[in-house]
Amino acid sequence: MAHFVLIPVCLFAGWLLKRGGILPENSGHVLGTFVIYVSLPALILANVPAMLLEISFVYLALMPWFVFGISILFFYFAGKFFRWTLETRIAVTLCCGLGNTSFVGLPVLRMFYGEEVTNAVLIADQFGTFLCLAIPGFILAVRYLPENEKRNDKKLFVPILKKLFSFPPFLALLFSFFLRLFTIPEELHSVFRILGDTLVPIALITVGFQLRLPDQNSQKGESESHYGSALAIGLLYKLLFAPILIFLCYYFLKVSPKHTKVAVLEAGMAPMITASIVSLQMGFRPILSAAFPGIGLLFSVPTLFLLYILLENFF
């Protein structure tokens, strides 16, 4: 039951450190950078070189692509029904079509199922979520850039694309497959494992530190463009509809229970922080895009616990 306590404790600790002014304002960025450049790459290098590849890993990698593809259709028709602007529809698709499968998903699932779930989560995140954002996600974003920004699309697109393809965890993943050809010394493996173990508490504290809700004044500029309906429908899709859809599909396809559990819970993660940043930088409904990760995380805590309990009782 420790994981039921650790998640809210770490999130609250991060929030308290921020609100109490105990850590500097840039601490969220510093802690997040440590996770991206040290904790997550070390965890990948500690696990992937000795990973036993399984056929059903393909289903884990395909899950984010499937969820994102369905989200394009779902939010297209939702946008027509609620009369959203094009910018609203693209913002919701980018933010809620992809989940926070590494920064939050990895520590949460490691607490639910232990270290043995790490390989499955890494496959879903790096070959699934990350590549889905880098390819169809960016194509969608650049294709529908606001008209007054299209002349600057190269200035926006190239730096972001360069940043994503120099993403340390992804580079660590590629390098880890090369390391499979060699035997890693136990001393080096121990170093990777110890550094990788820092991911769970630091990542959750970082999310809590950066957690913020949009105030009423910041919403006034966007309230006329269906801020509430876009936020509610987007989170409803991401936290409930997507995991239910993945469960039904993977149960019908007879995917192994252990990988079905991972896929369903990863599908139900809060909106992806990186995708929200992309939406912000591209100019698609900035206040709405910024709200999705924080508010989504708050609502995802009970929904993830509910999904976890239902999956444990079903399988």
TrEMBL record:
InterPro entries, alphabetically? Mem_transp_PIN-like
The organism named in the record is Leptospira stimsonii
Pfam family, any one: Mem_trans
Can you tell me where the transmembrane regions are? Answer: 30-50, 57-78, 90-109, 121-145, 165-182, 231-253, 262-284, 290-311
Q: Which domain of life is it from?
A: Bacteria
* Cellular compartment(s): Membrane
- The answer to keyword Transmembrane applying to this record is yes
| Protein's name in the database | AEC family transporter
What does the record say about its membrane topology? Multi-pass membrane protein
Q: Which UniProt keywords apply?
A: Cell membrane, Membrane, Transmembrane, Transmembrane helix, Transport
